[in-house]
Each structure stands twice: as structure tokens, then as C-alpha cells.
Amino acid sequence: MSILIVGSLAFDDIETPFGRSDNTLGGSSTYIALSASYFTDKVEMVGVVGSDFEQKHFDLLHSKNIDTKGVQKVDNGKTFRWAGRYHYDMNTRDTLDTQLNVFADFDPVVPLQYQNADFVCLGNIDPELQLKVLDQISKPKLVILDTMNFWIEGKPEELKKTLERVDIFILNDSEARLLSGDPNLVRSARIIRNMGPKTLIIKKGEHGALLFTDSGIFAAPAFPLESIFDPTGAGDTFAGGFIGHLARCETINDLEMRKAVLYGSSMASFCVEKFGTEKIAALDLLEIEDRYQSFLELSRTDN
């Protein structure tokens, strides 16, 4: 099944207690697409970049069979840039600089050949743009959406309107509390699911993730890593692994969504082991399956 991904492509300057990496390839759609590409060869991207987005970056995406016909290139502009510094616990970060550049005028146009996409994954962008994308898609089998506190606080009504057309909503625990207005995650999930998406995933960073469906709650552990270099893009990488598994198995039910959460968690655990997209751009299927099996072993109770 084909996956359409819409979001940002960016360059990041990242500083952590363990090093720094400048001019690092990033952006929500980049992480999602690279992660999903290990599960299906039908990944399509819509986004915008400037003249500073070099051919080598396109070559990387193309090497993973990612179709970039929907990526607009503005010759007289610069690509979206972000700079941030992580604190010692790696859960808190300070944004040092944000330059929207060509992303400020981004008007997503979905190419005709993408409009019949089976799955649509909407990265963290303006909810009005997310809705505009959905208006261009014929009959997707599944729509997944991500967001952040900036849009929850700045465009709550627009976000809620978009959520009415979403099947699966992914956000972190602080965002869930902010959107629902309730400190309890179980109650928050019920409130948010009443806004439209029947399936909700709440990411809890180093404490794993929760999947909420009509059938109940599934709790996935986080993978215990000795070395975490950079958490940037881990959430987007999770989304890519999640939707990638569902596209690969071509089945959407509770069991496969639980597996998809573990595959998403597996991909996210790889992402944080190096800066930017370096690790997830250089994986193989055996590594991914081994990490998935390791996740299964974490919760086993038999011998």
C-alpha cells in the first residue's frame, strides 16, 4: 500500500550534552519517510525546500525508494532551519533559533499520482494545511496525524476541525494533557477520541507509549539504551515505523496496531542512537527485526 507523507524538510543545528551536529538533515516528513521506507517501497512526499537543499539529500531519499515529485524547490529561498539545545536529561530542550524561510509560504499541492494514496501521514504542520491536504485526497484507507503544543495553543479550533477527519492521532503526554485540559492520561484519551480519531497513541518518551482503541489500552515499553545522543525526530520516526508496518501487512486491526506500536518504538530507539537521520538512514531489515524481537522479550513472562 502507498503512503503519502506531508510535513517539513529541514536543516537542524543540534546540541546535546554529548556533542553537537550542525546543518543536519531533518524535518518531520524526512524522519517519517526514512523510517517508513524499510517497510514499503511506496512512500511519497509532499513538502518544500530551498536552493540550499542539495542533490545529495534528494539522492539519500531516492536511495530508499522515496518518491519526491511532490517536494517543491524554491530556487531563490532557503530551507526551513531549526536550532536547539537539549538538557542533561534529554527530555527537555531549548529552541535557540527557528527560521521558517520557504516553509512560511508552504502551500501543499498533492500531485495527481499521489491523490489515491492508501495511507496518509500528516506531520507536524499547521492544521489548516493538514486539512487542505485531506481535501486533495480521494478515499484514503487510513489517516494519521501528528501535532505539537504550538498548534494546540495557537489554532485549537482548526486542529479540532482537522481531527474530525483523522483515524489515528499521535501526540505526546504533555500535548495530550494540554489539548484535553485534563491531567489524567486515561481521561485525556477519552476526551480526545471523542473529537474524532478512534485510535490514539500517547508517547511518553523514555517511559514508552500508550495505544487507546475501542478494545482497550495497550502499553508498550521503551527500549533501555545505554547511549542516547539525540532525541530529535524520534517521534516522527515512531510514526514512520508505525504506519510502515500497517502498510506492509495491509491489515488494520488491534493486533496489527499493537505490533505497529512496537515497530514504531523500535525505529525511534534507533533514531536516538546518533545525530539526526544518520542512524535510520543506514539500517537493514535484520537489525529492525532483531530490535522488534527485543521489544517483545521486554514484556515476556514465560521462560
Automatic annotation (TrEMBL):
The keyword Transferase applies. The keyword Repeat does not apply. Residues 23-278 form the Carbohydrate kinase PfkB domain. It comes from the Bacteria. Keywords: Kinase, Transferase. One of its GO terms (cellular component) is cytosol. Pfam families: PfkB (PF00294). InterPro entries: Carboh/pur_kinase_PfkB_CS (IPR002173), PfkB_dom (IPR011611), Ribokinase-like (IPR029056). GO terms for molecular function: kinase activity. This is PfkB. It comes from Chlorobium ferrooxidans DSM 13031.
